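Final report, results section. Input specification for complex C-07:
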Amino acid sequence: MYAGGYQVRLQGHRQTGMGLIGVSLFGDASNLFYNPAGLSKMNTKWSIMAGASGIFSTTAFNLKNSVYQTTTDNPTGTPFYIYAAGMVTDRLGVGVGVYTPFGSSAKWDDDWAGSHLIQNISMKVFFIQPTVSYKISDMFSVGAGFVVASGSVELNKTTSYGTPTAVGAAGLSGNTISYGYNVGVTITPNEEWSIGVDYRSRVNMTMEDGDATFTLPTSVESIIPAKNYFNAELPLPANLDIGVAYKPSDKLTLALELNYVFWGVYDSLKFEFKEKPELLNSSNPREYSNTMIFRVGGEYVINDLLTVRAGFYYDPTPTDSEYFTPETPSLNTYGFSAGISIKPTKNLAIDISYLHLETQESVRSYAPEYFTGTYNGRTMIPGIGVSYNF
Amino acid sequence: MKLKNIILLLALGMLFACEPKIDDFTTTSGGADFSKYVAIGNSLTAGYADKDLYLSGQENSYPAILAYQFEAAGGGEFKQPLMFDEYGFGNRLLLEASIPAPVPAGIAPDQRNFTSIAANGPFNNMGVPGAKSFHLVPGAEAYSALNPYYARFAAIPGTSTVLEEAASQNPTFFTCWIGNNDVLGYALSGGVSDSITPTALFQMAVGGVLQGMTANGAKGAIANIPNVTDIPFAQFMNTQVPYNALVLDDEQAAGLNFAYGQFELFLASQGITWDYPTFSAGPNAFMVSDETLPLPHPFNVRQMTPGELFLLTLPTDSLPMGMGSVNPAADPIVPWGIPSQYVLLSNEIAEINQAVGAYNEIIAGYATQFDLALVDMNAEFNTVATKGMEVDGIMFTTAFISGNTFSLDGVHMTAQGYSMAANFFIEAINDKYGSGITTVSPRLYPGIYYYQ
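Structure output:
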């Protein structure tokens, strides 16, 4: 929804303000996420940053062949980041960051037309990433970070085993710890140009013995137990980012970036249950495709106090039009961003960003359940953070 | 740019922040005007299911589904005489999954279900469970007091008629599906009680209904009658107990032949010469009571023939006790034919088929005469019964419980089944009037409900 699928790239308000561009921008600890190689090219010896955004998103749905319309009532998403980094020597930068690169929440009415697919889902992921970066020369830097990923998912949906007064329901929740990495290089041939390449690995969230609760009529409980455990795997896809920044003057920076997201790994969502697997196990096709996101952004330093930014991007959906589920109503999305930084002192900056997402109204189906309709969405993401560089 | 301006710009962005919208698609009404729709009919029109009339069944009745789909083409409010809960008159069946079999819900219904809601009328859904064709028209005033389903919403019980209440709402569009009960009551009782409505009476009653409904120029649709012997009520038991499931060994066959030889001797002593069939080892056809035989009870029994149908009510636990052959507990031993209320005999099936055929000819004639859309439910349900019909991945058959079409009473439909019926109406209406009403997905309607 926020960056295609369930990826969230709001890991710095400078970058968010510039259309979520970051791989070719250096200077502070937010490089931890966007390109670890940049940590050895910080402007100051130390950099500490923290920030958060509020995601206010709504998806509208119109059932095919019907006057039925509804909208989600999504809770506010709150991605955040905390980074601390330092130049240990002139050439070696180290740091650690905690951030939320994936996540999703969708809350439809409990009795909406697609409740058999999803009523509500909340997926929370945060990464902890210790990182080192080495400046090989003025032109080349490299960096690498090790990722510890902590994830949790909770979802609720209805089942077809209803009583006259209660719809049968299934609730699933689970936690997992997994691992990955983040590596990057920067090339700065001269003062004006900088190039960055970053690769963030796939992380498999493998849930084992997650809790499954079935709220079913008692006459069905002899067939399907109320308490159960499940295994499932949800891939967090790899990203390859390539970008270039051009700085025609001290005040102006213009940047282009391409993100290749390896969504193709998400081909199905499989659930394996401990009890009654022969009845309950399911393999649910998702058939995601790799996507390429195109971003453009700029930054202008007005004076020592104020910097302004703007950006734009187009983020095509990784979903398949025949296997589109309302649990992740990700559509082709246009992102418009703006941001400012205010520096009350030489070392302290307050970074504010605003990202507005408009989706392309689309007819989508979940073919296995014959669930078809028109989806549209809108998202507003204001964010604020502080940086202390010294 | 000043800081103030930037903040203003951001604030403006937030103002845009209304919810996303989806443009309404357009549905066309064609040559019909759906602004005031009234449905006339029986239990199928009311939304009856699982042996009762209850709230969610009514909300998913085919007229309610039609009215919802008409909304996009100028349809107006559609009021139904809703029950107050899911237990109607207290007869509702639910599925006990562990058997699996229907069991009574056993929950006391809301007492308001038994009180009149006429003050909230008039109602667009004039479906009355149990109604036959001639119960709708003038002359049947008493029926509005006698039928408890109608009595609870009739404007003046004892005076109102369905036709008068429906027509006086000045509908611009109506649907009529009536006549099922004119043969169904006879069929459900195994031809023992109730009677088939004479064709002439059916013709007069339906003609009166259509005359009254079209008097002010209303357009409409009329559905014909599916073959009632295809319903699970008449089919399911035969998949469990074949007509020739009286399986005997040599000794048992000899015992029965001796017993029936004694019956022949007894009848001869009464001056009746009769030849009962001979039983043999292996499967034998059950003995069934047949009132048309010139024999005194309980000797009026004969073997069942292929094609005769056990009804869902067949007390199968009596079969091992001797029902279908002889009653060994009686003294002296007498024949024990399966009582005919549990069986549709071939002559009864023939009568039912003949009546349904005659009714459907009358309905087709009226559709032409009154220029109405004709919904060929008989052909559609024949397909469901013979081949099954897949809609959005749901396979509709006439199988009991698992067939998706019929509810737990084996006679009336599930909400999914009713949504399919609504689609047959929509297709016929679009064909007739050139309208563009969209069909619905049965996926969005509930199937069988479970026992809690």
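Helices of chain A lie at 13-17, 31-34, 218-221, 277-280. The radius of gyration of chain A is 22 Å. This concludes the modelling results for the funded period.
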